[in-house]
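Troubleshooting: if your tokenizer reports a length mismatch, compare your output against this known-good record of 67 residues.
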Amino acid sequence: MTETPFLPRERLLKHQQHFQNIHKHTYLKGPLDKVTSVAIPLALTVSSLYLIGRGIYNMSYGIGKKE
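Known-good structure output:
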């Protein structure tokens, strides 16, 4: 005995072809999705690397030490 499929085979193949032909990532579909998924993490990364670099520079030259 075989189980009946949830969807007809033709409809399933049609859906597979549709989703395989989409070249954009699914999380970058909307016009503002690039801002939330690319620009904001990039800005956080750049600012944190700047602050870490400034802290290492200040520690190495002794700038801002309390006497």
